[in-house]
Structures are given as C-alpha cells and as structure tokens.
Specification:
alpha/beta, 7-stranded parallel beta sheet, 7 strands, globular
C-alpha cells in the first residue's frame, strides 16, 4: 500500500493534493494545528475513498520535536511512508528591512526545516526499500525573488536548493525527488486581497500535476515543474 505524508494538509494546495491522492487509493497521514479541521477533513477523505486509511495529528510543523513525533506515529499507524509532500509554508508580505525581529527564524522553521527533517527521517528508509517519491512545494519566488516578500523568497530559494541536493543524493537509489514551483496560486495567502481567480493557478492544478508526475514510469523523474498563471504573475 502506498502511504503519503503531507504537511499543512487541511488548506490550499495540501488539501487538494490529499484529495487527489485519496482518489488514487493512497493512504494518508495529514497534520495541522487545528483538531477540528483535521477531523472534518478526515471524514471527507474517507467519504471520497472508504478503502484508504487516514491518520491525523495536531502538529506545529515548525516544531522539530512535534514534526518527528508525527513521522514516527505515521509509521506506527500506517506503515512505511512512500511519498512525502513538503507543503507546509508561510508567506509574509514585507521587505527584509521591515520584517519583524523573528521573521527569518519563523519562516526558515516553517518553509525549509520541515522538509530537511522529514528527509533525514525517511530518506535512508526509502533507500532501504528502494522505493519513494519526495515532492517539495517551492515557489517562483525561488527563481525570481520578490522584493516585497524578501525573507519568503530567501526561504523558497533555500527549499529549491535542498530539493536539488536531495535529488543528487537519491538518484543513485532510484528514489524520485521533484520540486513543484507554483506561481500565483489561489490559497489563503491571498485572503483579504481582491483577486480574480480566473487569472491564477488553482490548488487543484498543483494536485493534478503531482498525481500525474507520481504515476509516471519508474524510469522517469520530473526534476522540477513550473506552473504559472496564464496572464503572468500577479
């Protein structure tokens, strides 16, 4: 049985990815800081596909100890993890000089550290099993930094760099690693702003891309995929 662990899974891209995987018959481990959101979403996923298993845990993914406990509990409840979706992220609209004093640490611990720690936890186990696929949800800000979101751009650049190192380390073991690089995507990051959904990437677009990449033949790895709005970035 294929088992996916998804961070930040109850909203936005994480939610759409979980739904898409549930439809494919993949069991899921999902985490969030909200118990109510997790319980509601678990019920929804099991309605979509009663044949899968869904493990939930209230976790602050930026907390290393909580994150690693979630990883260990996932193995205990579901078995060996075969897919990692590093989706957890936060966005702050601010220049570096106008950031709060703790902005850098908070964003590094949210946007980069969880992917690093889950890789360290599961990587050698995937190598031993000779099976696995890691997806890192990056951002076009890693390719074209945004001055008005400076620290966010730094962290997404770091995540893309981490993805490249993972790929180099894992390719000799036939473990797949893919960077998903979305442009302006209709998630809660845009909450409170007036935007036209028809000029943005949808979370379902990201989920569809991930499922199709995952279903490719064993010999094919998508190193990275960029998905931008048709009219250009917002």
């Amino acid at each position: 049985m294929e088992i996916a662990i998804i961070t930040g899974a109850t909203k936005g891209m994480g939610r759409s990815i979980a739904i898409a995987f549930a439809k494919e018959g993949i069991s899921l481990a999902i985490c969030s800081r909200s118990l109510d959101d997790l319980q509601s979403f678990k019920n929804e996923l099991l309605q979509i596909n009663p044949a899968i298993k869904v493990f939930t845990a209230v976790v602050d993914g930026s907390n290393k100890a909580q994150l690693l406990q979630f990883a260990a509990s996932t193995e205990k409840e579901l078995g060996a993890v075969t897919i990692i979706i590093n989706n957890l992220g936060m966005y702050t609209y601010s220049s570096i000089l106008d950031d709060s004093d703790d902005a850098f640490e908070k964003m590094m611990n949210t946007n980069v550290a969880p992917a690093y720690h889950l890789y360290r936890y599961f990587g050698k186990k995937m190598i031993a099993a000779k099976h696995g696929h890691i997806f890192n949800i990056c951002s076009v800000a890693a390719l074209n930094p945004i001055a008005e979101a400076g620290t966010y751009s730094i962290t997404k650049t770091a995540l893309l760099g981490l993805n490249k190192v993972m790929r180099l380390e894992m390719q000799q073991h036939n473990i797949k690693v893919t960077a998903i690089i979305p442009g302006s995507t209709l998630t809660d990051s845009w909450k409170g702003m007036e935007v036209d959904k028809d000029t943005m990437v949808s979370p379902e677009d990201i989920a569809s891309a991930i499922v199709n990449i995952y279903k490719m033949s064993p010999g094919a790895n998508v190193d990275e995929i960029i998905i931008k709005p048709t009219p250009g970035q917002i």
